[in-house]
Design brief:
Blueprint lengths: L8 H14 L3 H15 L6 H12 L9 H18 L1
């Protein structure tokens, strides 16, 4: 697919210098820039990327470890509950 993009002169000259410095084509620079933009906004680039993200999101996350405070509270609640029923 081909699209026309209009750049101001300064931006165009900066891109030409970047092409020369990196020894990359304009298409390679554009591909990298658009891939970075899609990644920044969380948009999958292709089907493979979408499937990878979906699989990662559906994985079961391990339960959080109880902190010392949480353990004390749970122990205190279980003691209070046992004392009320006794």
């Amino acid at each position: 697919m081909r699209k026309l993009i209009d750049f101001d002169d300064e931006t165009y000259q900066a891109l030409v210098r970047l092409e020369r410095d990196r020894m990359a084509s304009f298409q390679e620079l554009a591909d990298e820039a658009f891939a970075d933009l899609l990644k920044k906004h969380g948009v999958p680039r292709d089907l493979k990327d979408a499937l990878r993200r979906s699989a990662a999101a559906s994985r079961v996350k391990p339960a959080a470890k109880l902190t010392a405070t949480m353990k004390r509270r749970a122990l205190k609640q279980s003691k209070n509950g046992a004392a009320k029923h006794a």
